[in-house]
């Protein structure tokens, strides 16, 4: 049933007043920004629902068909109202496929429910602020792209098989991060003046670890984002080195180590580019990553990259373009290196990650697929050591100190050399300690040639090796998105229907204790411009005429002439603010 089945309303406000509680609740649920703060009456709800930022935020969540339906409706209502039948008929003609008729009708009804269209089936109107935002909406692909078709080469792939292979990749990821941290503790990575790590240093690191450069780059960025590596002082210089947080992370079980990295990856506002350890953040990247994960989680079977990109472009057509495609391609590669995407199949732990599961759930999921760690190795007389599986963290760290990795595979082969033993003696100068360590982990004791090699290297004890550690970076705060909870929807209905005569507080309780940072004028303008481009709700610190400073919740609409035009959620109207009076800007995350 349509939101309004009564007599033809003359305005959007009249349309909303005539809607049932159920339809108003569904409107608020589909557009949660209308609830923050709760509007004081129907007039305030109408004003807010018709503003460009709120409409843009809703349009960010709907697919190509909805956008195209709005474009058709906008064109047909340029001079007079249209009808539901005319809009649907035009969509069918443009798409050239009769099977789109029912989905088109549903899309129009959803848009009316969301208050972007209003009126009756016989006299349908479009909210004015919608027109410019859908003027170039493309004709949707039909049928809509999907991963339902069998993907070539993946007929035999299953989630169970993907889980097994993903667990092996996940183990390699955390081992690589551990090795990077241990290596940089001895010899910090060089820092470029412009930041990051040079191509030469990256190549040297990849060669030292026997891993591809792209894999090393991703590991570096993940370790940096997780606060495991940072810039620190060596005394005479600065360099990349492990943080104090790296020590505690290394001591955790493998499943928990991976889960911490995976959660960091999901929330990263960036992807790994040509240069690792370089700050290139963009808030949209986090959203685009969640879109790709959602597509893969919904796929009933394997999905190839190009199909996944086509689905993302269809389901979230706004922001489509070269930049988003590049980000999603990089995200696909990172997901493969993280071990959550195997041959186009999202693993069980990947599905948990897509749903933003808690750390414990992620740990439990990946723990079932990680290869079992070993605490015993085979030490051979030719100075090689064979580890038949992934090593326990403490054992692996100590073994990598005294021996170099020679080859990797189902088993890892280490080689003892004069140089590697001297490196170990620089950390622990007593050769007996290293004798005992190898005897304890060896399956058949310590071969005499290996004991002799250690004793020979110990004839001249090297200078004490300093281990470098940087202070741990502050842990990023995960701000949960503000949502349309049933309690808040019910409260809104009480207020809108005048069942609660008390006026809502002018400062939203859940936002009152959050500070807005003080900024320079240029930073304020940049932050406001960014919020306009990305349809964000923001808090601003505004100097009032009486000399006080007010904390306001606003939706910026445009900048110009030294002023900001924005919808003020507290005043429940569109206002103009002098930029010179705004001392700070902070983003508020709102989601459905």
Report on the structure:
Helix content is 47%, strand content 12%. It is an alpha+beta fold and 592 residues long. The protein folds into 4 domains: 12-134, no CATH class; 159-367, no CATH class; 378-457, no CATH class; 505-588, SH3 type barrels, CATH 2.30.30. The strands form 5 sheets. Strands 14-13-12-11-15 form a 5-stranded antiparallel sheet. The protein has a 4-stranded antiparallel sheet with strand order 7-8-10-9. Strands 1-2 form a two-stranded antiparallel sheet. A hairpin with a 4-residue loop joins strand 9 and strand 10 (412-415). Helix 5 packs across helix 7, helix 6 packs across helix 7 (101-113) and helix 9 packs across helix 19. The radius of gyration is 30 Å and the shape is elongated.
| Major beta sheet, strand line-up | 14-13-12-11-15
Question: Uncertain runs with pLDDT below 50, 5 residues or more?
Answer: 151-156, 500-513
Biggest sheet architecture: 5 strands, antiparallel
Question: What is the arithmetic mean of pLDDT?
Answer: 88
Oligomer: single chain
Global structural class: alpha+beta
Number of strands: 15
Which percent range describes the beta-strand content? Answer: 5-15%
Radius of gyration: 30 Å
Number of domains: 4
* Annotation field: number of helices: 25
Shape: elongated
Could you give the distance between the termini? 22 Å
The amount of helix comes to: 40-55%
Using brief descriptors, characterize the structure shown:
alpha+beta, 47% helix, 4 domains, 5-stranded antiparallel β-sheet, 4-stranded antiparallel β-sheet, 15 strands, single chain, 592 residues
């Amino acid at each position: 049933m349509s939101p309004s089945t009564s007599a033809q309303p003359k305005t959007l406000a009249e349309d909303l007043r005539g809607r049932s509680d159920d339809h108003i609740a569904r409107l608020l649920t589909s557009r949660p920004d209308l609830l923050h703060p709760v509007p004081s009456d129907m007039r305030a709800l109408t004003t807010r629902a018709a503003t460009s930022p709120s409409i843009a935020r809703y349009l960010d969540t709907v697919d190509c068909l909805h956008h195209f339906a709005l474009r058709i409706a906008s064109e047909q209502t340029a001079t007079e109202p249209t009808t539901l039948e005319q809009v649907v008929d035009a969509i069918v003609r443009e798409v050239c496929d009769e099977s789109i008729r029912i989905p088109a009708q549903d899309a129009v009804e959803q848009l009316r429910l969301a208050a972007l269209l209003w009126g009756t089936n016989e006299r349908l109107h479009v909210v004015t602020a919608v027109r410019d935002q859908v003027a170039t909406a493309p004709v949707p692909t039909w049928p809509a792209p999907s991963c339902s078709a069998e993907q070539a080469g993946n007929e035999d792939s299953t989630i169970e098989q993907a889980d097994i292979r993903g667990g092996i990749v996940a183990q390699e990821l955390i081992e690589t991060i551990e090795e990077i941290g241990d290596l940089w503790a001895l010899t910090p990575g060089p820092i470029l003046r412009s930041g990051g790590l040079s191509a030469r240093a990256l190549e040297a690191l990849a060669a030292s670890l026997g891993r591809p450069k792209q894999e090393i780059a991703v590991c570096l960025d993940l370790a940096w984002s997780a606060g495991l590596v940072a810039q620190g002082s060596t005394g005479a210089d600065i360099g990349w080195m492990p943080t104090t947080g790296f020590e505690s992370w290394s001591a955790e079980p493998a499943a928990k180590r991976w889960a911490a990295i995976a959660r960091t990856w999901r929330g990263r506002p960036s992807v790994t580019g040509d240069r690792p350890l370089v700050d290139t953040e963009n808030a949209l990247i986090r959203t685009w990553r969640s879109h790709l994960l959602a597509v893969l989680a919904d796929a009933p079977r394997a999905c190839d990259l190009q199909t996944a990109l086509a689905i993302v472009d269809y389901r979230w057509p706004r922001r489509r373009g070269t930049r988003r495609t590049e980000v999603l391609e990089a995200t696909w590669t990172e997901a493969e290196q993280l071990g959550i995407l195997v041959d186009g199949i999202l693993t069980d732990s990947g599905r948990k990650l897509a749903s933003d599961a808690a750390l414990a759930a992620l740990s439990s999921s990946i723990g079932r697929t990680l290869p079992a760690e070993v605490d015993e190795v085979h030490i051979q007389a030719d100075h090689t050591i064979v580890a038949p599986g992934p090593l326990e963290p403490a054992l692996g760290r100590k073994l990598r100190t005294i021996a170099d990795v020679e080859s990797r595979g189902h088993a890892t082969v280490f080689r003892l050399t004069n140089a590697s033993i001297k490196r170990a003696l620089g950390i622990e100068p007593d050769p007996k300690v290293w004798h005992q360590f190898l005897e304890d982990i060896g399956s058949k004791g310590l071969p005499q040639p290996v004991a002799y090699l250690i004793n020979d290297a110990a004839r001249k004890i090297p200078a004490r090796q300093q281990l470098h550690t940087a202070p741990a970076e502050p842990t990023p705060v995960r701000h949960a998105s503000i949502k349309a909870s049933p309690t808040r929807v019910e409260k809104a209905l009480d207020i809108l229907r005048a069942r609660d005569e008390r006026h809502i507080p002018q400062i939203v309780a859940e936002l009152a204790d959050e500070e807005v940072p003080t900024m320079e004028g240029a930073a304020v303008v940049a932050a406001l411009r960014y919020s306009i481009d990305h349809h964000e709700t923001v808090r601003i610190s505004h100097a009032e005429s009486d000399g006080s400073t007010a904390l306001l919740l606003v939706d910026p609409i445009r900048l110009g002439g030294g002023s900001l035009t924005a919808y003020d959620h507290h005043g429940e109207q569109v206002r103009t603010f002098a930029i010179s009076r705004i001392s700070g800007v902070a983003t508020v995350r709102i989601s459905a």
